[in-house]
Amino acid sequence: MSVTVRAVVRGSVLLTFMTAELLPTALLPVMAADLAVSEQSIALLITVYAGVAAVLGVPMTIMVRRRSRRGVIIFCLLVLALGQLTLALSPSVTVALVSRGVVGAVHTVVFALVPVVAAELADQHRRSGAAGSTFIGTSVAMVAGVPLVAWLGQLLGWRATAIALGVLALGLAVGAGRVLPAGPARNKAGSARAGEVTGSARAGEVTGSARAGEVTGSARAGEVTGSARNGDSGGDRRGRLVPPTRAPGNPGLIGSIATVVVLTVLAVGAVYLAYPFISLLADRRAGVGATGFPLLLVAHGVLGVLAVLFVSRWIDRSRGRISVAILALLTISPLAVAFGSPAMVVLVLVLWGAPIASLPPMLHTDVSRRAGPAADVASSAYVVAFQVGIAGGSAIGAQVLQLYGLTSMLVVAAAVGFVALVFWAVFGRDGAVLPAVPRTRAS
After folding, report:
1. Taking a C-beta distance cutoff of 8 angstroms, is the pair 161, 151 a contact?
2. Structural domains in the chain?
3. How far is it, in rounded angstroms, from Cα 55 to Cα 108?
4. Of 269, 365, 263, 350, nearest in space to 304 by CA
5. CA 176, 5, 186 angle in degrees (round to 5)?
């Protein structure tokens, strides 16, 4: 099977899930009018989705760990299809909330498994890049998915648009069944035989593209950390996810993961304090109506994809500068929208796509650098933290909007972004982590 076809299917799976999650963002006024509720109530559709994903993400991942990865991904796509159909037929916002919660329950599972599958199918020195490249689907969701949803919503109505996403999910379920492997892939670098490491380097080798004597993530040359120690592997011959049986070898790993988790919650929370209301911002701050809004989203998304391509190319060489730039732009942009002229607001809403789309690859790179061979464990924590940021940010944003208005909401978003920037300045540099609780050996 073509490598390109597999990559397209994997990316499309994440694209479809991300587009479905952000559907209320593109259609907020239309859904509010049809369901006869406030715009803040429609924003809760994002909060509930992300909240359920955050709470049930790890338990659901553990529940399916002994199942075929391909089978689990297909099941999640079928749940998405059913959820979209239920959403389309919802007579009230309550039913819509339930349907969103059901899909949210499998969201984290998909975002944890798809990068693992991508890494297994890649050559050994390209696994980190392959896993990270799958998240381009989330950026494409912004450049194509969300604008298309906004356009279809205006043309056909939001219910027909939800059905269209469900049909797409069904098609991807069929495609995943045909092109994705049932279990860990065999490649030139090695196999999943006992005593070897699945998804990372064999004992005594350096993971990723690092040369002997260099450090990749938390693993030094000649040392295997995470779940891959002493012959343990990330999966078995049947493609089942097997959890690590012993703690990672790096004593600072817990602190490293905690650092990424806190940074993710802060940065993503800053974005989603305001992003779910981008249609309101375009309308009330810049006078961009229903006709022009999809075009604004297209430009917003194009800048996002260009930024992702730039960040993916240069993040390893200039991680510090790029990270500071992204977090600084996330801080400044809401203030420019809050106090700028209509023309400036339009420009900033378009440029805002760059830091928003660049945030996932930036954070995922941080996960890989800090966790090394235990990146699969850290990635699960990162996905949950991302959903916590979405749920918390959208909930706080809706509450501030209702009580104090758009300007106050944007100021709060900028304040949280500034906290994220300060946090990165203190803990984001290589080797700086939150203190971990010391472990004691049983006597």
Report:
1. no
2. 1-185 (1.20.1250.20), 252-432 (1.20.1250.20)
3. 10
4. 350
5. 75
The closest of 207, 187, 241 to 375, measured between CA atoms, is: 207
**pLDDT tens across 222-260, in order?**
333 333 333 333 444 444 444 443 344 444 677 878 888
Three-state DSSP string of the chain: CCHHHHHHHHHHHHHHHHHHHHHHHHHHHHHHHHHCCCHHHHHHHHHHHHHHHHHHHHHHHHHCCCCCHHHHHHHHHHHHHHHHHHHHCCCCHHHHHHHHHHHHHHHHHHHHHHHHHHHHHCCHHHHHHHHHHCCHHHHHHHHHHHHHHHHHHHHHCHHHHHHHHHHHHHHHHHHHHHHCCCCCCCECCECCCCCCCCCCCCCCCCCCCCCCCCCECCECCCCCCHHHHHHCCCECCCCCECCCCCCCCCCCHHHHHHHHHHHHHHHHHHHHCCHHHHHHHHHHHHCCCCCCHHHHHHHHHHHHHHHHHHHHHHCCCCHHHHHHHHHHHHHHHHHHHHHCCHHHHHHHHHHCHHHHHHHHHHHHHHHHHHHHHHHHHHHHHHHHHHHHHHHHHHHHHHHHHHHHCHHHHHHHHHHHHHHHHHHHHHHCCCCCCCCCCCCCCCC
User: What is the rounded CA–CA span in Å between residue 374 and residue 324?
Assistant: 26
| Per-residue pLDDT reduced to its tens digit, 308-335 | 888 878 877 888 899 999 999 999 999 9
